[in-house]
């Protein structure tokens, strides 16, 4: 077999390529290209601003309008930029002479770029060069005037250049977070622009197996006023072909591939190491076909570059008319379209990270931490207070427990709820005054397990007994006496309460009570809690003591109360009485705690 060595073809010698950076933005782009390395191509910086020019990395530099602007910039005035370039026309013509291709990079909207770019394009064309212009359009925040200046220049460039590629800085700004600095926004934009420029330049200057010519590039980019669609991806290892394509489609300039569906011409360029296989190329092109219309003209190029090792890169270039992009509804440009099979997550596509939400918003949107679990016995209280619905005694309640014990237990339980009393606030009250019909909505079924059941859900509460005061008035204006205030109208039953040594349902946190049904009614302890009881308002929970007075007296004959209404108080003899416990009563133990012991004694244990 006769070995056949194929000489790599060189489309354009690099010495025939000139990359020009015009104005401040152009200088930045050029610098990045220089830093990334663009072997062979000549870099030329043009600017009115001498300071920017001096710091530029390009080997060749020309100051524009030396006499006109005297080293200062054009101050955002395109007329100055236009005159400045005319002043330096001969120098520029000499620098471009003999070049076959000129890439002009500039930012439109300012004075130098907008005013000088059309003139440079004209000069280069007159010198016989093929001119590709890469231009940025200003950010929206830069104002209407800049945008208009940019538009005017763009229209001229569209006529004068061979190919015009625009990058909207607004769109580039999407590459960075909204709160990142303007430097980051520019840097991200520049990076994307430079990648595109480099890819295009490489495409036409790199030796290839299947070459892409300038005519191909022109047809890919040529539309009257077009925006460049550009995507570049690189990958290595297993599945490198599909991964590289995925990366290329992720480019924001392609709208994640969606924009390609309307492209008329798409230029595809593959580059890989010496192990690049035909199978990979086929696979990649097959997948790509799902993104481009059937009748689209696909221009294909491939190059072997040993320096790429086992990496494979793909570059996609196309253009769409600005008019089309402006009129297309945003949703139609979305990448989440069924026509994008490669972007289907089920096929392994990972959508690009959504724009990150502001930290504070994330915080705000974060689910709140779970509130501390509410203790069971507290939960039914509001229900009860809102609607004293009757409820059967819980099944777990031992039948032998006397009503008194029930009451004591409940009173002790209430006393042991510090949170209910510590802040001395009443429960949330229904708005009786404004919406009386809503005063007692049907209460949900109480939880039978609740230790409050025995106390709170007793029997249907009858209407309060008629008193001198209207019941509603008493309910809407419950009386909460201050802890230190003496009760204005002493009630006999309260006076007769034995002293704490005898029976203390709980620490005397609320020495005064409110009697919702009116103070004129003497406190009575219900003989049996199973019997209809007067409606109990929230605050009544806090005041079991006075109600307990009468039955305690009745059930403890051994305790001699030396208190008589209106009489003087004598000493209570306690020697023979059992302390803290009722004689003859078995202790009420609940949850390991003796409920007959005063809570403060229990806490001391
Ligand atoms: N992507 C990108 N755009 C830039 C950058 N700097 C400026 N621009 C854009 O380019 C437009 C023109 O800015 P410059 O290039 O600084 O202006 P100029 O052409 O030098 O004109 P004068 O400053 O008036 O002399 C601005 O309105 C920006 O929208 C940059 O570093 N990156």
TrEMBL record:
CDD domains: FtsZ_type1. GTP binds at residues 24-28, 111-113, 142, 146, 190. Residues 16-208 form the Tubulin/FtsZ GTPase domain. The keyword Nucleotide-binding applies. Homodimer. Polymerizes to form a dynamic ring structure in a strictly GTP-dependent manner. Interacts directly with several other division proteins. This is Cell division protein FtsZ. Coiled coil: none annotated. GO terms for molecular function: GTP binding; GTPase activity. Essential cell division protein that forms a contractile ring structure (Z ring) at the future cell division site. The regulation of the ring assembly controls the timing and the location of cell division. One of the functions of the FtsZ ring is to recruit other cell division proteins to the septum to produce a new cell wall between the dividing cells. Binds GTP and shows GTPase activity. One of its GO terms (cellular component) is cell division site. Residues 330-374, 425-549, 562-605 are annotated as: Disordered. HAMAP family: FtsZ. GO terms for biological process: division septum assembly; FtsZ-dependent cytokinesis; microtubule-based process; protein polymerization. Residues 355-373, 425-434 have a biased composition (Basic and acidic residues). It comes from the Bacteria. Residues 482-492 have a biased composition (Acidic residues). The gene is ftsZ. SMART domains: Tubulin, Tubulin_C. Pfam families: FtsZ_C, Tubulin. It is found in: Cytoplasm. Belongs to the FtsZ family.
């Amino acid at each position: 077999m006769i070995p056949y060595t194929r000489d790599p073809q060189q489309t354009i010698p690099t010495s025939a390529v000139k990359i020009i950076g015009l104005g401040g933005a152009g200088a930045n782009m050029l610098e990045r290209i220089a830093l990334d390395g663009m072997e062979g191509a000549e870099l030329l910086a043009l600017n009115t601003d001498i300071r920017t020019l001096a710091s530029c990395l390009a080997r060749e530099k020309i100051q524009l309008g030396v006499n006109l602007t005297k080293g200062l910039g054009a101050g955002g005035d395109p007329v100055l930029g236009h005159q400045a370039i005319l002043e330096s026309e001969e120098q520029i013509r000499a620098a471009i002479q003999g070049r076959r291709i000129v890439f002009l990079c500039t930012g439109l909207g300012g004075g130098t770029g907008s005013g000088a770019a059309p003139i440079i394009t004209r000069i280069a064309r007159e010198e016989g060069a093929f001119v590709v212009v890469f231009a940025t359009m200003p950010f929206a925040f830069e104002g209407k005037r800049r945008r208009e200046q940019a538009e005017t220049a763009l229209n001229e460039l569209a006529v004068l250049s061979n190919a015009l590629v625009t990058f909207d800085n607004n769109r580039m700004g999407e590459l960075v977070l909204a709160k990142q600095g303007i430097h980051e926004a520019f840097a991200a934009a520049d990076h994307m622009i430079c990648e595109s420029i480099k890819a295009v330049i490489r495409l036409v200057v790199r030796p290839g197996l299947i070459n892409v010519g300038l005519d191909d590039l022109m047809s890919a980019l040529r539309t009257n006023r077009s925006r460049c669609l550009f995507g570049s991806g690189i990958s290595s290892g297993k599945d490198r072909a599909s991964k590289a394509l995925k990366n290329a489609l992720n480019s924001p300039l392609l709208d994640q591939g969606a924009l390609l569906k309307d492209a008329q011409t798409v230029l595809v360029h593959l580059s890989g190491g010496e192990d690049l296989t035909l199978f990979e190329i086929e696979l990649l092109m097959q997948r790509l076909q799902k993104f481009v219309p059937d009748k689209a003209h696909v221009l294909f190029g491939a190059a072997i570059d040993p320096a790429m090792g086992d990496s494979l890169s793909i570059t996609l270039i196309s253009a769409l008319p600005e008019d089309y992009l402006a009129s297309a509804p945003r949703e139609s440009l979305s990448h989440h379209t069924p026509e994008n099979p490669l972007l289907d997550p089920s096929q392994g596509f990972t959508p690009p990270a959504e724009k990150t939400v502001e930290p504070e918003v994330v915080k705000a949107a974060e689910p709140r931490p779970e509130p501390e679990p509410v203790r069971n016995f507290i939960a039914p209280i509001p229900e009860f207070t809102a609607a004293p619905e009757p409820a059967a005694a819980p099944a777990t309640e031992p039948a032998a427990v006397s009503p008194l014990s029930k009451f004591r237990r409940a009173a002790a339980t209430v006393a042991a709820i510090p949170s209910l009393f510590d802040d001395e606030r009443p429960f949330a009250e229904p708005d009786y005054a404004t919406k009386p019909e809503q005063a007692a909505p049907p209460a949900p079924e109480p939880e039978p397990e609740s230790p409050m059941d025995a106390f709170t859900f007793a029997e249907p509460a009858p209407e309060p007994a008629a008193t001198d005061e209207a019941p509603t008035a008493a309910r809407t204006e419950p009386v909460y006496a201050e802890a230190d205030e003496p009760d204005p109208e002493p009630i006999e039953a309260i006076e007769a309460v034995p002293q704490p040594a005898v029976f203390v349902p709980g620490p005397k946190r609320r020495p005064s009570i409110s009697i919702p049904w009116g103070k004129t009614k003497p406190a009575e302890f219900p003989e049996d809690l199973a019997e209809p009881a007067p409606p109990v308002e929230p605050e009544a929970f806090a005041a079991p003591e006075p109600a307990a007075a009468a039955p305690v007296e009745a059930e403890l004959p051994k305790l001699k109360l030396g208190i008589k209404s209106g009489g003087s108080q004598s000493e209570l003899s306690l020697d023979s009485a059992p302390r803290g416990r009722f004689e003859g009563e078995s202790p009420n133990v609940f949850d390991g705690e003796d409920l007959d012991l005063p809570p403060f004694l229990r806490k001391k244990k």
